[in-house]
Amino acid sequence: MIGKHLQCLVKTELRSNNFTIISENSNQFHDKVWTETGHNLDFIATHQSGLSIGVEVKNTLPYIPRKEFDAKLRMCKYLGLKPVFAVRWMPKSYIYEAYHNNGGFGWLFEYQAYPLGFEPICNKIVKTFGFPVKVMPELPADAQARFSNWVKKQSQKH
């Protein structure tokens, strides 16, 4: 359920940045289909500027596994998409590789996102384990701004 919650927040933010969701849970874009692995992307979206992105959403405490991260980068490259990783957190090396080597974006939220009504559970998780969890009815304002700025820069290239 919390995975779907973050997907809904990301979808809303994509639309507010003038993206059209082309497909969900997909491994194909235009006439290309990714068959190298069994992976797909949570969203494939296009911007009014012509920018096309493949979005992977991970609402987990651990980082996206390296093998999966690499597969998503290869898939985006093959499909002609800029990779966007919408995640709680990921290593700086992943961010560097996504951005500098692939023109993508590491969209970090810092906390594992829970829907409204889960405040007591989040408080207990934080108090008991110290995990970075938080009720988020929307994405953090700084994360929204970072993504919007990246979209503006990318749009100027198209």
What does this structure look like?
The protein has helices at residues 2-16, 66-79, 92-101, 119-129, 141-157, and strands spanning 19-26, 28-29, 32-33, 41-47, 52-58, 82-87, 105-108, 112-114, 133-135. It is 42% helix and 27% strand. The longest helix has 17 residues, at 141-157. A five-stranded mixed sheet has the order 1-4-5-6-7. The mean pLDDT is 95.
Can you identify the CATH class? Alpha Beta
Query: Shape, please?
Result: globular
Structural class: alpha/beta
* Stretches with pLDDT under 50, minimum 5 residues: none
Q: H/E order of the elements? A: HEEEEEHEHEEHEH
Largest sheet: 5 strands, mixed
Give me the side-by-side strand order of the main sheet.
1-4-5-6-7
| Rg result | 16 Å
Helix coverage percent of residues?
40-55%
CATH topology: Trna Endonuclease, Chain: A, domain 1
In percent, how much strand structure appears in the residues? 25-35%
Straight-line N-to-C gap: 36 Å
How many domains make up the 3D coordinates?
1
Name given to the CATH architecture: 3-Layer(aba) Sandwich
What's the pLDDT, averaged over the residues?
A: 95
Work out the number of β strands. Answer: 9
Tally the helices.
Answer: 5
